[in-house]
Design brief:
Blueprint: H1 3-14, H2 19-26, H3 30-37, H4 45-53, H5 58-63, H6 73-84, H7 87-96, E1 111-114, E2 117-119, E3 125-127, E4 130-133
Antiparallel strand pairs: 1-4, 2-3
Length: 140
């Protein structure tokens, strides 16, 4: 089997996409995607580029080298863990890093000033001012 076709199929499955869903998102027929995955034809760049918008590693599909291979080990581990996490966990991480707004931030108009104090083992104390919008849950 052509390695490009095997990696294309691998990336589609890693993303949890059926052939039907992937084909629609890529703007090709299911038959065309099947043809690419079965090594009967190589996928054109016009198919692979939109596939990256779905989270596929196009560099890996084409070359066999993950695009994160050039990152430090800690960043590679972070990316792997993020990709393996369920969608709600990913959304929480992105909100925590202020990449996207928290889900209830847009819907809540109530703002509360809170001065939390968290205490752990002996000598561990975290304090600070926090502006809280909407319902917050902390699990320790």
């Amino acid at each position: 089997m052509n390695l490009v076709s095997a990696r294309l199929r691998e990336e589609r499955k890693r993303l949890g996409l059926s052939q039907e869903v992937a084909a629609k998102a890529l703007g090709v027929s299911v038959g065309s995607l099947y043809t690419y995955e079965k090594s009967r034809a190589n996928p054109p760049v016009s198919v692979l580029l939109p596939f990256s918008d779905l989270g596929a590693d196009v560099q890996y599909i084409v070359t066999g080298v993950r695009s994160s291979a050039n990152l430090p080990d800690t960043e590679q581990k972070l990316i792997s863990a993020f990709r393996a996490a369920p969608e709600p966990v990913q959304a929480g991480i992105l909100a925590m890093l202020q990449v996207v707004p928290a889900a209830d931030e847009a819907t809540s108009e109530k703002t509360q000033d809170v001065n939390p104090k968290f205490m752990g083992k002996v000598g561990q104390v975290i304090e600070g001012n926090v502006k809280v919008k909407g319902k917050q849950t902390f699990k320790f």
